[in-house]
Amino acid sequence: MQPPSLPRLLAPRLPFFYGWVVLGCVCLAGFARQGPSVAVLSIFIAPMTGEFGWSRTAMGGAVSLGGLLAAIISPAIGPLLDRRGARLVLCAAVLTTGIAAMALSLTQSLVMFYLLFCVARMNWAGPFELGLFGAVNNWFVARRVRATSIATLAQMSGLVVLPFLAQVSMQGGDWRTGWLAVGATVLIVGFVPCWLLLVRRPEDLGLEPDRLAAKDGRAIAEPRFSRSQAMRTRAFWLLSLYTVLLFPVQAGVSLYQAPHLIERGLSPIAAATVISFFSAMSAAASFGVGFAPRRWPVCYGLLLAAVLMGTGTLALIGVATLPTACLAAGTFGLGIGGIMTLLPMAWADYFGRESYGAIRGVALPLQVLAQAAGPLLSGALRDWSGTYTDSLLLFGVLAALAAIAALSARAPAIQTPAGAAS
Hints:
- The protein is an all-alpha fold.
- The chain has helices at 5-10, 19-33, 38-52, 56-84, 86-103, 110-125, 127-139, 144-171, 175-197, 227-230, 234-263, 268-288, 298-315, 322-351, 356-385, 389-408.
- The protein has two domains: 16-199, Growth Hormone, Chain: A (Up-down Bundle), CATH 1.20.1250.20; 227-408, MFS general substrate transporter like domains (Growth Hormone, Chain: A).
């Protein structure tokens, strides 16, 4: 596929690998991705429910429905990503997300809100996830872990900045001004760099990705699995099992940390402090993973992340003071930062760049549905028992099972695809 003209002009003249330009585009798109994040939506819940009289459950349902739509479309987007590259996928995701966010300022009914927000949230859960990590994994091999950690950190910065931007914008007007500001920022930050500078893979510019080298200096062969080949391996199903076990923990504990801490006797301010510390530890872990030696098997990192999440989850059960709550939530946050960086990398390390989109597109719906199940499980057990203890115990067990799955999920033997992504 012919790359855009600007990269063809720049790549031979740059004193560094063009993959770093691609990573910069991915970071900006990852920042823009957070326009329809739960953190941003939370800023609008009070003013919008106050004006329209909607229930909190009704607004939250748009998040779940958007995730369900992403689970449906992801298998079709994956092969498109492999054929056309991340430029088309990310530009379409940024453009539709930005326009939908700005159009939310015109909301007059719950139906209109659902139509617009579900499109944006679908992009968040599906096309952005595939496009961002597809671009990184196509351009980086030896430095894949560092590049992935930088891309993840950029996304987390969007979670910090965009809710604050929405809140500040609403001070001079109302919630409609906030949506306009969020949508405009998504378009300005994310669209132009991706449109002008993203290239599908190094080979399109006559380049090669940075290669892993053996001790004798020779490049190590990359895996090149087709989708059908990958799905016949034990590693594919163990990584999928790991995802299904751990992402309910990630979503269920994250969403209900604050109310659990308040029920344990902490003040709302103290609970907010704990959540901030949890977020900081997640960001620190995401960035810190980038400096781990590349020779370490990725399954060990996934094992450690599951252990940290399980330990933090169980420790939350008995917290009664701010220091113990920070310790438990910080431990949990370190685990989350680890899986957010390591899991996308694991799929590329195990199955290669050739059909990454097709393979990840099949597995991603499991992640999206698992994330949706976590809050439902936690909420139902809270309503049944009156506390979050039962759900935290359940999530601790799931994390332990995920750790076993990670330890068993070794890289499959390298194969050459029988044909195109199938």
